[in-house]
Amino acid sequence: MSTPSTFKKTVTERALAAHADAWTRLSTTNTFMAQLRADTLPSSTFAKWLAQDYLFVTDFTKFMGHLFAMAPRRDVDLLLSGFAAVRAEVAWFEQHLAKTQPGALPGTDYVRLTDSNAASAGAGMACIAFVSWLQSLERDHAPEYRRLLIVFWAMEHAYMSAWNTARGDPHVPARYQEFVDRWTVPEFAAYVEGLKQAVDTAYSTATELDIQDAVGLVGKVVEHEEAFWAMVLAA
């Protein structure tokens, strides 16, 4: 009689393993980051990324708010720390855009991307698709906190993984070092790890069908992340 394994994989471990090749493309073989490290990234491409990522992050904060409204007490402090960091990040983006691309900043009445304002905001198709998908999760007739949480963790994990490829690289041009430093600090890594643990706790009693659904959600995040990077690199 065989003995059951005592080393059951968590939902995040399964999600990372199921999409291992895609995670590699988002991190170690990410073309944008490779060009940034080699100082071959066109300045226009970096400017495009900055503007598109700003639009995405402003909508990302709305997703965070929806997630926070559903959060159990055990995760409140963790998510609040994320709000504080993103608030500073949005202001930081705006400072850079005000200097280099003032036309990319929406007005003070701007709320979030919609079908009616996407074109005037200058949002690319991949940015619009990513944001629209997140908004569809918010509008689910019976949204589950843990489903939104694993999507949130996957997005933060993807961002950290990409920028970590430039951490400590002496070839990174000085003009980009500020960006590398922002997303490779130990505090951000600790935050992403905290989200990972929160996800695993939320799914600790989930059914196999729920786990498979969660792995599928992470797969969608990966698809949108890859499309976003490809959009930025496209001429």
Question: Describe it for me?
Answer:
The chain is mostly helical. The protein has one domain (11-233): Up-down Bundle (Heme Oxygenase, Chain A). It contains 11 helices and no strands. It has helices at residues 11-18, 20-26, 31-38, 43-70, 73-100, 118-121, 125-138, 145-164, 174-182, 186-202, 208-233. Helix 1 (11-18) crosses helix 11 and helix 4 packs parallel to helix 7. It starts with 10 loop residues before the first helix and ends with a helix.
Labels describing this entry:
single chain; 235 residues; mainly alpha; Heme Oxygenase, Chain A; globular; disordered N terminus
Question: Could you give a short description of this structure?
Answer:
The protein is an all-alpha fold.
Topology (elements, then pairings):
Layout: H1 11-18, H2 20-26, H3 31-38, H4 43-70, H5 73-100, H6 118-121, H7 125-138, H8 145-164, H9 174-182, H10 186-202, H11 208-233
Helix pairs in contact: 1-11, 2-11, 4-5, 4-7, 4-8, 5-10, 7-11, 8-10, 8-11
Q: Which sequence of SSEs, written as H and E, runs from N to C? A: HHHHHHHHHHH
Rg estimate, integer Å: 18 Å
Tally of separate domains: 1
CATH architectural label: Up-down Bundle
Kindly report the CATH topology: Heme Oxygenase, Chain A
Task: Tell me the name of the CATH class.
Answer: Mainly Alpha
| CATH superfamily placement | Heme oxygenase-like
Give average pLDDT, whole number: 93
Sheet of most strands: none
In DSSP terms, counting alpha (H) and pi (I) runs of 4 or more, how many helices?
11
The helix content, as a percent range, equals over 70%
Unreliable residue stretches: 1-6
How does the helix and strand content classify structurally? mainly alpha
What is the end-to-end distance? 61 Å
Protein name: Thiaminase-2/PQQC domain-containing protein
Organism: Allomyces macrogynus (strain ATCC 38327) (Allomyces javanicus var. macrogynus)
Domain Thiaminase-2/PQQC: 30-94, 145-233
Pfam families: TENA_THI-4
